[in-house]
Amino acid sequence: MAPKKLLTAKDLAAVLGLSVETIWRYTRERQIPHIEVGPRQYRYIEADVLTTLNKGQGSDQVQEEQTDYYVDRKLTYEDYAKVPSETGYTLQLIDGYLVRDPSPTFIHQRVSGKLESILRDFFRVFDPQGEIFDAPLDVLLDKHTVLQPDLLYLPSSRPAKRDPVDSLPELVVEITSPSTAQTDRIRKFASYLKARIPHYWIVDPNEHVIQCYQLKDGHYSKAVGFDGGTFSHPAFPGLEFEVRALFTSS
Q1: d(CA 227, CA 147)
Q2: For the whole model, what pTM was predicted?
Q3: 156 and 223 belong to one structural domain
Q4: 95 is a domain residue
Q5: CATH of residue 239
Q6: Residues 105-127: pLDDT tens digits?
């Protein structure tokens, strides 16, 4: 007997005429059979799902999601950890609601890699026991907010000890793209401020701009802004690099 074909959430959604979000909800609530093939990686057997949902007669009894990521309560990290991953997208949890953004572009990754290398070299001297991490890495800001900063610096005084990381970063960096700019500049800005993260940098590869915010008196003030020249920051003496070089392809 030939093995049964395993479907992704996207495949199953197309078969049933539902949204991927509905398939995720049914998976999270364990209302449909699924196979876990890796962390947050699930596959489905069509016949088994149909039998479970409606005795093999289709998806007529399925309650479709009314809006993207509709929930009747705020989700927690435990809920978030059960949501299947989806190829081509990243998932984060902001104030109890799932946020789905397209995966990073090659330009985003190029800038991220360059800046990560710069920061690693600097903090290796500035704080030898501190650590630089890059996405994807879940950072738990509170029970309803789990973000994946593009880059983050954990000082030696607040090392990572578990997953998700619940130590407070000293610095988080988000590298924007047209599809994530609103999330980075509004929703994540508010989340990082609420968590009282001392430094938040927004790097825009399209405009070749770096904006550095610093926590002062409970608010973020724009500490430094660069659209060229040499980057430097008063809180990190000795950290210097040419801004334009960060955004070139060489």
Answers
A1: 27
A2: 0.73
A3: yes
A4: no
A5: 3.90.1570.10
A6: 999 999 999 999 999 999 999 99
